[in-house]
Amino acid sequence: MTYSHSTGLPFLKMHGLGNDFVVMDLRGGLARPDAGLVARIADRHRGVGFDQLAGVEDCDDADARLVFWNADGSLSAACGNATRCIARWLMDQTGAGSLRLRTDHGVLLAEDAGGGLTRVNMGPPVLDWQAIPLARDVDIDHLPIAGGPVATGMGNPHVTFFVPDADAVDLDRFGPEHEHHPLYPQRTNVEVVQVLSRSEIRLRIWERGTGPTLASGSCSCAAVVAAVRRGLTDRRVTVHVPGGQLSIDWREDGVWMEGPTAIVFHGTLTPAWLS
Prior knowledge:
Elements: E1 9-16, E2 19-25, H1 35-42, E3 52-57, E4 64-70, E5 75-76, H2 80-94, E6 98-103, E7 106-114, E8 117-121, E9 150-153, E10 157-162, H3 171-179, E11 189-197, E12 200-207, E13 211-213, H4 217-229, E14 236-241, E15 244-251, E16 254-260, E17 262-269, H5 271-274
Parallel strand pairs: 2-3, 4-6, 10-11, 12-14
Antiparallel strand pairs: 1-2, 1-17, 3-4, 4-5, 6-7, 7-8, 8-16, 9-10, 11-12, 12-13, 14-15, 15-16
């Protein structure tokens, strides 16, 4: 992909609990980056570095359209923390207290939760094996995988394992082994959950196409949905991730996620680097 303008390509660096993003404002018709450029930007030594890249586009039926890429250049239909970060950025720009943001997972409602926190309704969880998607019809609450994990869709696929001690899991081995499990034709995000109480869990994360991350909104939502379905927690749960904590509330209208966001810096990819 080539950008012809001489000023380079502006971007914003943001994070939610250390789950970091490059955000590009593509409104006004700027072309989406291709997979090769996304992967180059993701390089933390020769590019910028991120867990996901998000593009903000014009939208006729919502305040904006969001598109997400993983660090390997593959597309993702959902990214909860990036949605919260962009929502906060747009609300600060416009002064609005709420926004409707279209993603490939649907139109998501975002709200100012007060105290510098931002809340997003990630929509209902996907509980149909074909839509998650899985390779075949199985019991999604007890998958035929060692450890009997739970399958959930949150616009992207998830597999959730419940363990006595999350720290004892070798995530660098465990994550890729299950990301590429044949039961998941589009690969999957991997969650390792330690239940602390009816209202608290500890979560370690391996994100599809990215690797270990300090936080993940969609993974936190999937982990709570899985815990509720197993009868291990209530519907409102504090999720402790390596980067901090998120509040997840599985309501009738969807899975709500609340937490902090931060703008780190504004930057510009130079024409020389882009070429």
